[in-house]
Design goal:
Chain lengths: 575, 113
């Protein structure tokens, strides 16, 4: 996977750039920026069973198959036939490559006990053999596995040492890209210190078993003239050969779509501001029996409902068990399995090493091409003590999924405290915490959104109910006694309902009283208005009468004056 | 010291006196170390196996693929083809004791002697 991407960096690079020979090993070419130094010797050092031979073989096969660079394998470890048989399962058909003239496998069995040293010697036959094979195939790649067995074989190791130094120079003069493997051990990188002669590129391989979980690691110790990743990178031996997983924290340029997808729980979507971002990673942590698996089931269910494919990896339960349990929530996941939309894969974390898990996951992702993946019960992987190896392992699983834009929900058994999952929590975009609360003799589930990157999310806690029609989130009651859930919540709800009823009754009574009062006052008001009108009318009448009298009196006076022939003396002023 | 020794150190045992020894010497061209080995081997054989030996010199430069076929990594290498069992000696045979013990022309010396 992915060696084509880097093809541009390889071959005869122009200018100052170092020409590189791609190894065909996913990840290694990424770390080394294109492969091993072309025309130089690379030392691959590692203990027994660390994958040195496989690395070398893959390098040769990649050259022969993908880059038209024939190769020569000179092995001191196994018979040629056995080498071919060992890698056949990885899809490396060495016999065919040999028939096609793209590969020569030469094997030397070295048995020191059968050899008697009698004086000075040289390793010219090795040179002669390699020269012939390289010439015959026009080989560009050579692997010597493991050259160190020559030490202690012929009596005088100073000669072997000098000859190996000559050999590396000779290989470089010959213009081939070579891998020399060496055993780890002693004070240096290799038991015999052969790193002395190989100064251009040194890669170490390591295989550790801790708490019965094995992890393989690769490190580029040295790469003269080239930038390279210096971390220890876990690698795995998968069905396709060696694969180094350098992704962690090297590249953080995942696509970040704005699209939201449903978690399958409506109110949770609402709490998350509209659902999960597609391609994001959600961690659901919580103690046993808090409903983590059910939440995962909703996510895969909703994906299948949308017609998308989903992958459900179970680390703790069998598929049958989970399918049955989810049916009780009203989720018929079996029909999705039958429809080919849902793939369930179950494996105990302890059954394989970590890298095997990762390999299996990678293969499943290739096969299923899901849009949504749920890793149920990564606790077994991630929290076997605060082991950085398992944590980085989980990180790589997340990366693997994230780089493919797969929305991932991982559920993990947290030990209650929010810090127990802190190792992986920084790697996830959304973290949901499920917690049991124990009150009034019952356990109830609570859901918190601890974080949700790039999303305005609810800071509220919800009660999490598993019903026969799926998960429901309920508001919780927050009172003086804390958060109320379960029957306490119901009791509170009933009490509030009573109170509400009482309140309604009171209001009705008050309304009636007021209405009566208003009516009374309106009646009073009407009566008063009547009186007012009557009085006003009376007043008008009286005033009108008074005016009439005054007018009449004036008229009388004028009539009287006319009759008496009185002077026209104005009398108004005295009036 | 004129009789060859078998593995158990007993003179003449394991090899019929008249059965010729067959020794193969692998070399790469005429390098000094190879020439020295030829010289040393001839001398030892003349001394211990006069008339009862055959030395075959194989030059790997003439047939490079023979090295892998015959499992020869270092030169000079002497392989005692006969008498059985096959014995392999690497080096220019300048360590006469090692050579004689290796070819079983002399019983191994006791430690410290």
């Amino acid at each position: 996977m992915g060696d084509g991407v880097l093809a541009g960096l390889t071959g005869k690079a122009s200018g100052l750039a170092l020409a590189k020979a791609p190894t065909g090993i996913a990840g290694l070419d990424q770390i080394t920026g294109g492969g091993l130094p072309s025309g130089r010797v690379t030392l691959v050092a590692g203990g027994a069973g660390t994958g040195k031979t496989l690395l070398g073989l893959q390098f040769l096969v990649a050259g022969a198959r993908d880059h038209a660079e024939p190769g020569v394998l000179l092995t001191f470890e196994e018979r040629a036939a056995k080498v071919a048989a060992n890698v056949r399962s990885l899809g490396f058909d060495l016999d065919r490559l040999q028939r096609d003239g793209m590969l020569v496998v030469l094997s030397f069995q070295v048995e020191p006990a059968e050899i008697i040293g009698t004086g000075k010697f040289d390793l010219e036959p090795l040179f002669v053999t390699l020269d012939e094979a390289i010439g015959r195939l026009d080989a560009k790649r050579v692997v010597l596995d493991t050259i160190e067995v020559l030490f202690g074989t012929f009596g005088d190791d100073t000669i072997v040492r000098a000859e190996l130094a000559r050999l590396t120079r000779w290989l470089e003069e010959r213009g081939v890209t070579a891998i020399v493997t060496g055993e780890r051990g002693g004070t240096g990188l290799t038991r015999r210190g052969i790193e002395e002669y190989v100064s251009d590129c040194v890669i170490t391989l390591d295989h550790r078993v801790r708490e019965e979980i094995s992890t393989r690691r690769l490190r580029v110790v040295k790469y003269r003239g080239s930038a390279h990743g210096t971390n220890e990178y876990p690698f795995l031996i998968s069905a396709d050969g060696l694969a180094v997983l350098p992704i962690t924290s090297i590249v953080l340029d995942y696509a970040a779509p704005d699209e939201r997808i449903s978690t399958g729980v409506g109110r949770l979507d609402h709490m998350l501001g509209g659902g999960l971002f597609r391609g994001s990673t959600v961690l659901v942590s919580g103690t046993a029996g808090t409903g983590k698996t059910s939440l995962g089931a909703h996510l895969v269910h909703s994906a299948c409902v949308r017609g998308e494919r989903a992958l459900w990896v179970l680390f703790e339960e069998s598929p049958q068990q989970v399918l049955r349990n989810m049916r009780s929530l009203g989720l018929d996941l079996r029909s999705w399995v039958d429809a080919g939309l849902l793939r369930i894969w179950a494996a105990r974390p302890s059954a394989f090493g970590l890298e095997t898990h990762l390999a299996a996951l990678a293969r499943l992702i290739e096969e299923v091409a899901p849009s949504v993946a749920v890793l149920d019960g990564i606790a077994g992987l991630a929290f076997g003590a605060s082991d950085p190896e398992t944590t980085s392992m989980v990180a790589r699983q997340f990366d693997l999924l994230k780089t493919r834009g797969i929305t991932t929900m991982a559920t993990a058994l947290g030990h209650g405290a929010e810090t127990s999952t802190v190792n992986v929590s920084s790697l996830v975009d959304t973290w949901l915490l499920l917690r049991n609360t124990e009150t009034n003799g019952e356990r109830n589930r609570l859901l918190f959104v601890l974080k949700s990157r790039g999303t305005a999310h609810s800071n509220q806690v919800r009660e999490f109910l598993l019903t026969d029609h799926g998960i429901e989130l309920m508001d919780v009651y927050v009172g003086p006694a804390g958060v109320l859930t379960g029957s306490a919540r119901l009791a509170q709800a009933a009490a509030e309902r009573d109170a509400a009823t009482r309140q309604a009754d009171d209001a009705e009574r008050r309304r009636r009283e007021l209405r009566r009062s208003v009516m009374e006052r309106e009646a009073h008001l009407a009566a008063a208005q009547d009186e007012l009108s009557a009085e006003r009318a009376e007043l008008d009448r009286i005033e009108r009468r008074g005016e009439q009298r005054a007018v009449d009196a004036e008229a009388d006076r004028e009539a009287m004056a006319t009759r008496r022939w009185a002077d026209a003396v104005p009398s108004q002023g005295r009036h | 010291m004129s009789q060859p020794y078998a593995a158990d150190g007993q003179a003449g045992a394991g090899a019929a006196p008249d059965e010729p020894w067959n020794l193969r010497l692998y070399v790469t061209g005429r390098s000094p170390v190879c020439l020295r080995a030829i010289e040393n081997l001839r001398r030892a054989c003349e001394e211990h196996l006069a008339g009862h030996y055959r030395i075959e010199v194989v030059d790997l430069l003439e047939n490079p693929r023979l090295a892998a076929e015959d499992q020869i990594l270092a030169v000079p290498t002497v392989v005692r083809m006969l008498p059985a069992p096959v014995r392999k000696l690497v080096g220019d045979l300048s360590d006469t004791d090692q050579m004689l013990v290796g070819l079983q022309l002399r019983p191994p010396r006791r430690k410290g002697s």
